[in-house]
Amino acid sequence: MNIVVVGPGAIGSLWAYHLHLAGHHVSLWHHNPPESGAMSLALQTIAKQTLPAVSFTTNSHDELANADLLLVTVKAWQVETALAPLLAHLHPDTIIVCMQNGMGATDAIFDKIQHYPLILATTTHGALKTDAQQVCHSGLGQTMLGAANLSGEQCTFLAEVFNHALSEVHWVSDIRIPLWNKLAINCVINPLTAIHQCPNGTLDEEPFRPIINALLSEIASVMGAEGLTTSLEELSLRVHQVIVATKANHSSMKQDVAHQRRTEIDFITGYLIQRAQQHRIAVPSNLHLFEQIKQMEQPWIQS
Ligand SMILES: NC(=O)c1ccc[n+]([C@@H]2O[C@H](COP(=O)([O-])OP(=O)(O)OC[C@H]3O[C@@H](n4cnc5c(N)ncnc54)[C@H](OP(=O)(O)O)[C@@H]3O)[C@@H](O)[C@H]2O)c1
């Protein structure tokens, strides 16, 4: 397939390299492309093996026009700005896959992209850019794909395409389920680790139990109102498993705050609050964390 990866940061570079290895024709689109018109990327695999650098074409309008698939891997708050200027160059059949943490990243631009086959993706792979030309695959994970509109439902074959590049990938008939389950985990781990500037494992300590319980109880109510089957016990178990399994990890929001970067809070806790308001459900504990993060990031967002 002809694939353009929009936003070749950590997760975009990981997928670009693996899709290239799987035999696809991959190019990149960046908001600040190199003057040479190409970006070189090497991959450090999960087994710490460094695979040779590959040169990817960047910001080619021809590549956009011929794209079968656009893989959008910018941060949630960058989706609209990144995608809007590209739409005029795409063929109407180009499949758009948006892979972000959180939910609601495509809402602001949905009217403009709803005529393309639209897929939402969520991944638990870990990646980080060790320098501009190298991506490190830091954690093995799973990826879920699912349709966000009617024409997206014709794209189940993509699970095989993505799985061949970087397993494990599953197609789900209702992408809201994995998205909400991940949102629930992110609503707990991300703001708490960002506020306390601690690794995920610290949240397993006794003082955090009451707040985690309060957050999850509110989240379970909102998920129930959204028509998802869950319970406080189920969510608690899942969050606890992730905290233990990733105890040494530093969440993306913790790192964003530490590096004074804009966080994805609007699309994590912010999305939960938005849905809670729709259902007239009070979520005071989540609202408090949301306000704390907004206050923390305000100085550097303004500048
Ligand atoms: N990294 C992980 O391990 C991981 C795991 C699971 C999910 N995710 C999710 O995946 C998404 C991407 O995360 P990430 O860690 O890969 O972030 P990232 O490293 O910041 O990658 C985003 C990339 O998009 C570029 N970009 C920003 N605005 C753009 C625009 N208008 N047009 C084209 N490119 C643009 C950024 O460039 P600049 O850096 O120059 O701004 C950066 O290279 C997030 O939603 C994240 O939560 C990440």
UniProtKB/TrEMBL annotation:
Function: Catalyzes the NADPH-dependent reduction of ketopantoate into pantoic acid.
Pfam families linked to this entry: ApbA, ApbA_C
Family designation: Belongs to the ketopantoate reductase family.
InterPro entries in alphabetical order: 6-PGluconate_DH-like_C_sf, 6PGD_dom2, ApbA, Ketopantoate_reductase, KPA_reductase, KPR_N, NAD(P)-bd_dom_sf
Ketopantoate reductase C-terminal domain mapped to chain residues: 177-297
First-tier enzyme category under EC: oxidoreductase
Database matches in NCBIfam families: apbA_panE, PRK06522.1-1
SUPFAM superfamilies documented for this protein: 6-phosphogluconate dehydrogenase C-terminal domain-like, NAD(P)-binding Rossmann-fold domains
Keyword Oxidoreductase: yes
Biochemical pathway: Cofactor biosynthesis; (R)-pantothenate biosynthesis; (R)-pantoate from 3-methyl-2-oxobutanoate: step 2/2
Lineage: Bacteria, Pseudomonadati, Pseudomonadota, Gammaproteobacteria, Vibrionales
Lineage top rank: taxon: Bacteria
Residue ranges the record marks as coiled coil: none
Reactions catalysed: (R)-pantoate + NADP(+) = 2-dehydropantoate + NADPH + H(+)
Record organism: Vibrio porteresiae DSM 19223
One term of GO molecular function: 2-dehydropantoate 2-reductase activity
EC assignment: 1.1.1.169
Domain Ketopantoate reductase N-terminal: from-to ranges: 3-148
Keyword terms of this UniProt record: NADP, Oxidoreductase, Pantothenate biosynthesis
Protein name: 2-dehydropantoate 2-reductase
